[in-house]
């Protein structure tokens, strides 16, 4: 019988207006402590299997604001994001696929987690569309780019009206990155991009 292989998960708080949270697995195993909006945990090694995930307001374990059953396959690298607006919080799984990358190349993708934003395009500094017509909960494939410093704009699909301008995105060679769009187009906290280094850049399973 084949041994189970370790997986790696990190948690992301992407629910606008929600308080900082504590996240537990199977009752008393804490995955995230006082995780604020817009923050990631480090990647955590976990055994594959089924987990009951409870999300509580930080420092208040009386009543979870979300309980969710989650299956973690073998040898997976993934981000588990708390998304949506209270009381409709949900967990959304974003896998970091383990794929090849060429020398002197970076890989970039876009993940739309802004609950009130329409479908959007991601446009670079030269006006080229990097990612087109991505709706809420959309996850694009990675695209290969030269390592460099980039500027992007988020533009509602079918318009030329930029709703977010993000300069100085530095992509290093042989690394995977995701652009996570979080926040609100109408209201506070406003739309922003999180640009983490993905675990498939450095984790082997």
Automatic annotation (TrEMBL):
Superkingdom of source: Bacteria
Domain DUF4397: 7-122
Protein name according to UniProt: DUF4397 domain-containing protein
């Amino acid at each position: 019988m084949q041994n189970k292989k370790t997986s790696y998960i990190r948690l992301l708080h992407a629910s606008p207006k929600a308080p900082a949270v504590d996240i537990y697995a199977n009752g008393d195993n804490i995955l995230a402590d006082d995780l604020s909006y817009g923050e990631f945990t480090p990647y955590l090694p976990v055994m594959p299997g089924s987990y009951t995930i409870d999300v509580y307001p930080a420092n208040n374990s009386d009543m979870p604001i979300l309980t969710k059953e989650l299956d973690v396959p073998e040898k997976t690298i993934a981000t588990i994001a708390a998304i949506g607006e209270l009381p409709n919080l949900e967990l959304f799984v974003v896998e970091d696929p383990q794929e090849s990358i060429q020398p002197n190349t970076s890989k970039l993708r876009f993940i739309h987690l802004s609950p009130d934003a329409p479908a959007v395009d991601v446009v670079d500094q030269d006006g080229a569309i990097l990612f087109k017509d991505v709706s809420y909960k959309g996850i694009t494939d990675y695209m290969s780019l030269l390592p460099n410093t980039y500027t992007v704009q988020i533009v509602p699909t079918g318009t030329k009206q930029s709703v977010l301008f993000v300069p100085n995105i530095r992509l290093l060679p042989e690394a995977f990155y995701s652009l996570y769009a979080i926040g609100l187009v109408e209201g506070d906290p406003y739309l922003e991009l999180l640009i983490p280094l993905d675990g498939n850049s450095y984790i082997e399973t």
